[in-house]
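Proteins fold. Shown next:

***
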Amino acid sequence: MKLVRFLISREGFISVFCYAITAVFSFLSFAPLNLPFFVWLAPFGLFLVEKRNRGVWKKLIYHGFGFSILFYFVSFHWIYHMTTVFGGFDWYLAVPIFIGSAILLNFKFPVYLLLFSFLAKRVGKFFPIIASFSILFAEFFTPQVFPWYFGNVVAENQILAQNAEYVSAYGLSAFLFFISYYLFLLRKPKTFYRFITSFLSKHKAFQKQFLFGAVSFVLVLILFFGNGYYLFQKWSNVKPIAERDVLIVQPNAPLEFRDGRNPAEEIRNLMNRIDVMTEKELKGTPADLVVLPESGVPFFTTHDTEVTRFSRIYWHQFESLMAIISLRHGTNVFYNELDADLAKTESNGRISRRDVRMYNSSVIMNPNGERRNSYQKVFLLIFGEYMPFEWMYALSGQTGQFAPGTNLNLIPYYEPRKTASTQTKDLHFEDTVTMGPAGVREYYSKDKVEEKQIGSFLPLICYEVIISEFVRKFEGDPDFIVNVTNDKWYGNSVESYQHHTLGRLRAIEFRKWIVRSTNSGTSVFTDHLGRNIDNDFTPIETTAVIRKKVQVIPGEMTFYRLYGNLLSYLYMGIVGLVFFFYAKRNP
């Protein structure tokens, strides 16, 4: 009842209006709408609520929760869809999970309001710096499952986005709140005019304060826009050392069959679809690399081992089809699969199901149809690929029980065959019924070429691409980044665009192209300047192919790859010390 009375009161109306300013303006600025003007106004809601409730700590916490819930409702409403479809929860469980995750995973809002209010009372000035310091602290030190930052929204501006090479999304968040607070101070032109005419002309202290603020505002603008323009020009003029012809196949694979469809028939249709799509695109025009998405062929593996056969996930027709595609067109094929091994070996030599570890894995098959290096997903999705507690698996039959991988090596790829197949009749999926992987390789044995590595790429599965601190742990210099993902669980929503936009900054941080392959849209190619090539996105919930020439940018260890978030930590450390000593000297 207290909540209802609050919401129908004048204070409640103003508060909800402030929540809406931040939520709606952020959503309008973000993908796929991409109206970047609104991002500079988005923090106004936070500023207004903090100013009206400065020092009232309990209210600020509640208001922070209000921002969290409304922000999730507007921008990340697809979380509810994920909870019901991906997690398999009923609505009466999905609603509290949605609200709880909105509060817990957007804890940055109450932390921001509390820290800003505390510093505003103790310091009493330098509010734009307090605003930028507070958001930087809140984004660094609060938990998130889908890490998003206000800086990702700022990065919709192509010039400002280039600063991510030094400061990632964190630094862009601090920049946004610094500039936005100055604009917030100018929200009432009459008050600003009276301030200039009546105070600045009479009080030297106010003159100095105004001059300091104006100079700071201009210098920060020049720093970020100037550096962004310089980096944009620098990297625009870099000549690639090679180009790779890459084909993305978007098969729109089914993920569950609760609607009564026949699983065997649907999987056969899927395999035929992949077969036809690749042949149509590659016949007569071979590519260097074919990329299939996460769950492009769900439920199965091509890794033939005692453990995978025991687990009944090895399917010889899956391996045969991948070999056919690579041999038929003389190309590398990178695809996603399940994989399994044993956590420990029983003394009696028998395999026990409780000792089997399952992995979300992606693997490369060379132009000779031979399975080579694989990558097991390291950063697993909570509530989707694992549960934090064993008893929670009983709540959701859709949640996987995956183990994290440990290997952070790049994936090598090989020189494709330069000539057409010598076979007069090519193999297709229907031939895999009677012909196993060995038979396929024997059939194309005359087309076998010498295996010669020509490069490597950085493999990322699903939302690993949005975690900048994780991606920089990979060693070596990749030719490009490949992100395979499955956004089908989120339906026809904005999630797929948001997912890509959150990961797009990896292209700038690494100065490498990104090949984004999705199961049901949106697949896209992004260059080393963070630009989506031709703004060419595949449609959602359809089958599609997209093909581009991916440039291999000369290897260079960028500042972010070398030092990570060093500049953000330095900024927080220096500003924190200045505030500490200032508050101590001016109690």
Remarks:
- The first strand starts at residue 242 and ends at 250.
